[in-house]
Amino acid sequence: MIRNNDMISPYQLAMIVIMTVIGVGIFNFVHIVAKYGGNDGWLIIGILGLVHIFVGLLLVRLGRRFPGKTFPEYIQEIIGVIPGKILVLLIASYIMINLAYEIREFTEVAKMFLLPRTPTEIIIFALIAVCVYVVRGGVESVARIVEITFPLLFIPFFLVLLPGLPELDLSNLLPLVSDLDIKFMRMIPRVPFAFRGMEYILFYMGFMKKPEKASKSVTWALVFITFFYVSISVICLSAFGAKSATKAIWPLLIYIRNINIPGLFIERLDGVILSIWVITIFTTVITGFFIVTYSLSKVINTKEHKQYALPLLIVIYYLALQPSGLAELYEWGSWGFKYVSPIFVYGVPIFALVIAALRRQGVKRDEEF
Amino acid sequence: MGLFTRRKKAEKTKNENYKIKSTTSLDENLKKIRTILKDCDDVIYKEFRVGAKQDLEFALIFTDGLANKEFINESVLADLMYHAREIPPDAPELGNELFNLVKYGSIPTPELKEIDNLDDAVLAVLIGDAVLLINGTAKILVLGVKGWPARGVSEPGTESSVKGPRDGFTETYRFNSALVRRRIRDPRLKLKQMQVGRRSTTDIGIFYIEDIAQTELVEEVQRRLKTIDIDGLLDSNYLEELIEDNPYSLFPQMKATERPDKVAAALFQGKVAIMMDNTPFALIAPATFNSFFHASEDHYIRWIPATVLRIMRFVAGTLSLVMPALYIAVTSYHPGILPSELVLSIAAAREGVPFPAVVEALIMELTFELLREASVRLPILVGGVVGIVGGLVIGQAAVEAGIVSPIMVIIVAVTAISSFSIPDYTFSNAFRLFRFLLIFASGFLGLYGIILGLLLMLGHLVRLKSFGMPYLSPFVSLTPSDLKDTLVRLPIFMMRRRPLGVANDKIRLNNNRSEIYNSKDKKDESQGADKHDKK
To answer: A10-368: CATH homologous superfamily?
Structure first.
């Protein structure tokens, strides 16, 4: 019998990382890659993705210093209770704004392709309400639902991509490797956008029964994410060429829209894929949402996290409705991901790791083995 | 609140300790029993005297209809009247002497119990045993002479199968436990019995295999059963609702089955079966989402067709959930998804239908559910009428009158057929209700609503647990070896290990198939191997 132990398995951690990092941004992602990386964008994102494996391992390093503890618990040890709580609150509000952004972005996409006449408010509210229900179930529920939706999401997605492959024109990727240094410099500020959500590792690692297995799952998760990013970049860049891909806001959706599977009774696949894609926004939101509620419970020192889910629904709903439209949303986004995200994805963990190492807190590397 | 519970507790302990002790005087005992069983006219009191001088007083009490009268007449009364003569009349403790003689020598029944209080005696009478009181001793003998009219073992009504065993449980608990015991002749198959229900005193048995089922699971089941304090239990569903993890869920968290082979199979997987008197439905705990899609027949036919059938069942289950919702979503929100010819033909069929697709779907689905309910409740003789009304009046006439489109009728029909392919009745009810939820969701938000509805259902399912086992296992908390018996049913020789959550004996089967292949070529060797095995 498996008891209610609030534990997650290494496999579930990998799934959480994948399903969190790959979010709605994927539709817009190729646009950004094409805009800043040109036809070499896929290569650059591949290399940067591999670099992020090391970032991921850094996060794991920090988590392993404090086995069985989550970030909000050990940050209070590292930098003191009050500063720790403030930092946790900051992270929680950052994640919350992030979630609102994701939800709003998805709503805009959904309005464009699925539900042109439905009010934005209803689309947003319905989504968050379902998320609240799952988040109230605790970390186990979150991990399980992420685990179970992973194949439901990616198997149909890759199956849909397959029939379009023969029509790709790989010559669009040529010339290979030109002005790589300039493109790199332009791409780097945009990368936190693609890998935001990685910092959740710090939180979810604390729920692992065997934290020593985290590095393996994080590596695999990031390899998968990089592979996924590279493959859709290659597909879209070679299908449209860098210039046309820059002109479309959501190149991936246009690519999917143009796929015709012979013999299938479904004519336009974008609607289907988009509705399946609800799953990814859903998982992105619940993993983040859980962290926000959990952090709050650690800041206020309550045993349960459940009671915060419902009030936060209203906050996220309010935040998601702030941008007046897609243009404003993406404007805010491009600023936020450039300047704010790096602080939380890289800055905070490195800062915490350095302080912990200086103050000799937690388990050191040589003691672990 | 606290006050009341405390008071209740005090009453309870009082009841347990307070039992009327029997005395040595037969008359006194009889009088007390008669007072307790006052106005119970089906209880028969037979007072008789035996011995040479006719001075040894006996009384036999039993309930008419519950006890086997023939047996009482031939074996109890006749034998007693004869054997009591062997006691020397001047024995100092006549009563006890007599008692021992009767207990150890006289009555040819294997079930004999000795008690010393009248409450238990009364209970025994009501259960169907006979109680023998003897003048001069406070001890009372309970003779197991149960024998009441019972339905014989017959084919289970709700879970029929083409191939495989055909015996099903009946309303008699003892028959049922025997049916399971017959399948597992292992001393480690344990049956723990208890009685639940303040007034009904219903027999409940917990079956498990000692070294396969986890001790915590068995203890948890027992603990939960002990918390039940109810006047009477009429069906195992009472138990289910009283001890399941989440009583507010639509999904059953224990599997009710009429098939002893299913119970045996579950026991081999480390599960626990709860059996109850007066119902042919045994409960298997823990139950998972996966197991409700399995029919026992899956293991009685070859594995490839079994796998195909199983996948078909999962597909049908999904269809029964989403079909009407998809129809609504496609017709009212996303006609662009379908090829234009199909959209045109749907639009042409829907021309003249005055309602939006949601209302159309609701009308038809509700009608179908009504039909289904009617045909379940009606006597068989009238049942045929329902078919005619359903098929002609509602199907054809509704379309011709232009209330619904013919495509909607097709959708409802496919949904209905699909929902029948879910093997478990309780479980398919959950799907029925979720179908309506999805219809509403799709009416509001189209495909997006359907996906949200499904995610809500999934969210509920991942939160659900059955006796600590995640409801969606083995799909969640992944153990790859357990996936052999889920969507697919791999050959039996491949399922070497028992599923997750098993105590000690984890190996189910040792695959010796290679020996079969070898023996074909070298007969001598295989004979040698056989001898080796026998050693």
So the answer is: Hydantoin permease (1.10.4160.10)
